[in-house]
Amino acid sequence: MKTIRIIFILMAISAIVLLPHISSALGWVRQTSVPVSTTLATAKFVDADYGWAVGFTGTIIHTTNGGTDWLNQTSNVSVALYGVSFTDRNLGWISGNSGTILHTTNGGADWSRQTSNTTNYLYATSFTDANNGWVVGDSGTILHTTNGGVNWVSQRTGSTSMLLGIAALNSSTCWVVGTNGIILHTTNGGSAWVIQTSNTTNWLYRVAFVDENHGWTVGVSGTIRYTTNGGATWGTQNSASTRRLEGVAFIDANNGWVTGEAGTILRTTNGGSTWITQTSTTTNLLKCVTFLDPNTGWAVGASGTVLHTTDGGGTAVEEQLIRLLPTQVVLQPSYPNPFNNSTTIAYSLPVSTTVLLTVYDQTGRTIRTLDNGNRNPGEYRFAFSGAGLASGSYYVRLQAGAIVQTQKIILVK
Helix, strand, or coil here: 138? Predict the structure, then answer.
């Protein structure tokens, strides 16, 4: 019996020791090829490869491989861009400050300006097909098009609130949320908008619906409101957070994610009856989250932050163990290694310290800086792309305070 007990203890210890290495490719991973450091306000993916993110100072970035590589697109504007909507790999619209509406028919290779007939800030946009879409913004502004934005028509709502989020289910059915707890709803393409009772005066930033009944909206002070009857009634869900929540995404009536201040990511698998905190590896504001399926998602936010997950953001059990694990500085084995396209580089910290994580070649030349700054205790993961690099050996260097660790990675093309 004593022998069995010892074996069981050793197996448990082995599982805990191995977990950081198993988990290094799981959860939320920061994508490091982002070419900007400005705030990214929102993102849209049409499939696992093609996606766009927009942000301040006219920023548009685009990926064709799920974010392994992000490239700048030319917007020809310098104002903040807040909303983006694509219906396929080619057709897209962006909204922003000063009544800005941009349109592309070739995936963003070229962007042209559409006439909005307003100078108001336009915070969100949603298209359901190539013709039908809405843009919303300041002073109760709702603009609608039925011809892809050739003409934009103002719709009356009876509200002067700042409208911040939109969820268009189809060309007839849409919800809009904003300041002072405003929720607007239409079932006839916006010919008439009805104010729904949210039972809150908190600012609401985004809204998500998966069908005509099930919807969620998020806002300041950890606010999560939900409905199961299309908004006829809105109830409260306990986020267990006091942070400002700005992003929400659901793929069905059960599976959803919420993002917000200080790197907050919340996850539910039961429609929001319970919310679990996930490890985001950042303390930056995450303004938007988007998912394609239960596993594949992205979150974007301040300082050019783009996070990606291929396992739904990880599981609660893994996260709880990870938070207990770091007892020393560890530069974890990169996975995969050797790698062909991208590998995940991770490290663990037992205490808060200044960190510099770089990749350099055999001559000692720095190829990329993955992380640089003060970091709290925990585990941090970064995706490193080999795009544009020759096959061969490279070196990952972690400096955490006075501790320096190095490991070799091999790129094979």
Answer: helix
Tens digits of per-residue pLDDT, 245-281? 999 999 999 999 999 999 999 999 999 998 999 988 8
pLDDT value at residue 326: 61
The single-letter code of the amino acid at 340 is N
Whole-model pTM: value is 0.80
Mean pLDDT of 3-29: 44
On the question of pLDDT at 11 being above 50, the answer is: no
Region 5-13: what's the mean pLDDT?
A: 35
Q: Give the integer Cα–Cα distance in Å for 303 and 125.
A: 23
Distance, CA of 193 to CA of 174 (rounded, Å): 9
Instruction: Centre a 10 Å sphere on the Cβ of residue 311 and count the other Cβ atoms it contains.
Output: 16
Comparing CA positions, the residue from 343, 384, 313, 290 lying closest to residue 51 is 290
**What is the DSSP code string of 195-238?**
EE--S--S-EEEEEESSSS-EEEEEGGG-EEEESSTTSS-EEE-
Q: How far apart are CA 148 and CA 223, in angstroms?
A: 34
Q: Tokens 């609608």 label which residue? A: 144
Task: Extract long-range pairs of 54-60: CB within 8 Å, 24+ residues apart.
Answer: 54/81, 54/82, 54/83, 54/84, 54/94, 54/96, 55/80, 55/81, 55/300, 55/304, 56/80, 56/81, 58/96, 60/94, 60/108, 60/111
In 12-58 the beta strands, taken as DSSP E runs, fall at 29-31, 40-45, 51-55
Find out whether the peptide bond into 20 is cis, omega within 30 degrees of 0. Answer: no
| Rounded Cα distance, 367 and 125, in Å | 38
pLDDT surpasses 90 at 289: yes
Place of tokens 């006091």: 242
